[in-house]
Specification:
472 residues; alpha+beta; five-stranded antiparallel beta sheet; 22% strand; binds flavin-adenine dinucleotide
């Protein structure tokens, strides 16, 4: 029996219809009157506070089909919750229905075939945990608590991108539920247009209930951050912009401006200090790692050198608690970047040396190497021909600082945006409107809109970086 909602939040359909949908589900349906409601609607980004009318905790594909049919038949706004990490909070919707896939977090590794089947609500930590005993890894991001679904459907870049490409370049197949409630398998051989669209087009086309990935032999990596004092940042950034263009594909390194968090296990004398860091991941032969790092270690005088051999999952989870536990305020601004001019370096130094709180940051993630082996029209992810995906993020634990960190991120972005390639990574955006979405997909947008028109003409899946059905 479902409890009645509180007056503050509308249950978006007749009570009998809600009861009927709930009776079809193996998973729970949570309403605002339930004790579990506040936990269930809490997102990773505490800046977002949405109050859905219903949260369906789906346990299997049948639950997902029932929930999609309910939303369509009753014209209820529908959101999909994978890992709940999205900066813009697109896993939740006010007054609508949320399909929460978090109970669907199973991972099955086929070590012989080197493939991994992952359910739609899993996080990357769950994937790494399952693959590591086999000496395998699937290319993902830089944090283990991020959802597999959202990261993959937006493209997915991280420590293994220069060697093995984006996450979508390692995607073999998905199972998904479409807006009409039908269930399809999508791959290079089946529903090819849809397979093209979901590789970068986000959650626009349906609910992905499972992913099949190719895995790679990645076990111990030589990895971790090297941090230089901020007065050496100019030298390090100038060196890095040239180095990473031609670096061996075994070596990945993302550049960031940081402050060392007070209270962290890092040396106390550094707490609060600004620095420029490059976080490395070397996947080549371990007996050559020290040699590869020799020229890097000859640069300037690092304040801290934490690079060394470690299991790949240790690298993936290194920053989970140190910098990025759940429940912080986040404001994101993104761009793709072709080259970093001297003028851009001056601007970076101006903003990067004055991070307004200890967790505010700017990251430059390289998306060259193997990412460039795939053409810009071969998948929906269009910005393949640039060198970096850049993100400026205002982050802080105190909601009172929300305006301050958002303003800083916007001002930094406005200064650098004219020197960037145009669009930005959809997974690093707040809700920024259609112009920004179209600039990001550029020439691929019309084809995405045509696929959307074919599979979701009424835009049932619109709580996302939305691609409008063609002609609408
Ligand atoms: C600390 C942090 C670090 C990050 N680092 C990286 C990184 O290194 N590399 C990178 O590429 N990205 C990174 N990201 C961005 C990340 O890719 C996005 O936040 C992404 O949206 C998270 O996916 P999720 O499943 O957790 O998101 P959710 O918030 O659950 O969902 C995000 C979007 O995906 C859709 N969606 C979710 N699940 C499904 C599904 N099963 N089927 C269809 N649509 C679905 C939702 O509708 C929503 O629009 C990072 C984010 C954070 C917060």
């Amino acid at each position: 029996m479902l409890r009645e909602a509180t007056s503050a939040t509308t249950i978006p359909a007749p009570a009998e219809a809600v009861e009927e949908m709930a009776s079809e589900l193996r998973g729970d349906v949570i309403t605002p009157a339930d004790a579990a409601y506040d936990d269930a609607r809490t997102l990773y980004n505490a800046m977002i506070d949405k109050r859905p009318g219903l949260i369906s905790r789906c346990q299997n594909v049948a639950d997902v089909i029932a929930a999609v049919n309910f939303a369509r038949e009753h014209d209820v706004d529908l959101a999909i919750h994978g890992g709940g990490h999205n900066g813009a909070g697109l896993a939740m919707v006010d007054d609508g229905l949320v399909i929460d896939l978090s109970p669907m977090n199973g991972v099955r590794v086929d070590p012989g075939a080197r493939t991994v089947r992952v359910q739609g609500g899993a996080t990357w930590g769950e994937v790494d945990h399952a693959t590591h005993p086999f000496g395998l890894a699937v290319p993902s991001g830089i944090i283990s608590t991020t959802g597999v679904a959202g990261l993959t459907l937006g493209g997915g870049h991280g420590y293994l991108s220069r060697k093995y490409g984006l996450t979508i370049d390692n995607l073999l197949e998905v199972d998904m539920v479409l807006a009409d409630g039908s269930f399809v398998t999508v791959s290079e051989d089946e529903n090819e247009d849809l397979f093209w669209a979901i590789r970068g087009g986000g959650g626009n086309f349906g609910v992905v209930t499972s992913f099949l990935f190719r895995a790679h032999p990645v076990d111990t990596v030589y990895a971790g951050p090297i941090i230089w004092p901020i007065d050496q940042a100019e030298e390090i950034l100038r060196w890095y912009r040239d180095f990473i263009v031609d670096a061996p594909e075994d070596l990945y390194g993302w550049f960031g401006f940081h402050r060392v968090p007070t209270g962290s296990p890092l040396p106390q004398e550094l707490h609060g200090a600004h620095g420029a860091a490059i976080t490395w991941c070397y996947t080549g032969p371990m007996d050559q790692a020290e040699e590869v790092f020799e020229p890097i270690r000859a640069l300037g005088t690092p304040a801290l050198d934490l690079a060394g051999p470690m299991p790949y999952p240790a690298l993936q989870s290194m920053f989970d608690e140190l910098y990025y536990p759940p429940g912080l305020q986040w404001y994101w601004k993104a761009d793709f970047v072709d080259e970093i001019s001297d003028r851009a370096i001056d601007l970076h130094l101006e903003y990067g040396s004055n991070l307004p709180t200890e967790l505010c940051t700017m990251h430059l993630y390289p998306i060259n190497g193997a990412v460039h082996d795939v053409g810009r029209n071969d998948t929906a992810f269009s910005y393949r021909d640039v060198t970096w995906s850049r993100v400026i993020v205002g982050v802080d634990s105190d909601p009172a600082n929300a305006d301050r960190i958002s303003r800083w991120a916007k001002e930094y972005w406005q200064a650098l945006h004219p020197l960037s390639a145009g669009g930005g990574y959809v997974n690093f955006m707040m809700e920024e409107g259609q112009d920004r979405i179209q600039a990001t997909y550029r020439g691929n947008y019309p084809r995405l809109a045509a696929v959307k028109q074919k599979v979701d003409p009424d835009n049932v899946f619109h709580v996302n970086q939305n691609i409008k059905p063609a002609g609408r």
